[in-house]
Amino acid sequence: MKFKLNIDKDAEEITEATVNAKSDFTEELEYLVMKYNRTDSITGYTDNDVKKLKFYDIEYITVIDSKTYAFDKECNQYRLKQRLYETEVLLPKSFIRINKSTFANTIHIEKYTLAFSGGIDVVFKSGSKEYVSRRCFAQIKKEMKSK
Amino acid sequence: MKNYIVSFLKRGIVASALGPIILAVIYFILGQKGVIESLAVGDVVKGILTSILLSFIAGGISMIYTIEKLPLAHASLIQSAVIYLDYIIIYLYNGWIPATARVIAFFTVVFFVGFFIIWTIIFLIIKHNVKKTNKKLNSF
Question: Which ipTM score applies to this complex?
Answer without folding.
Answer: 0.72
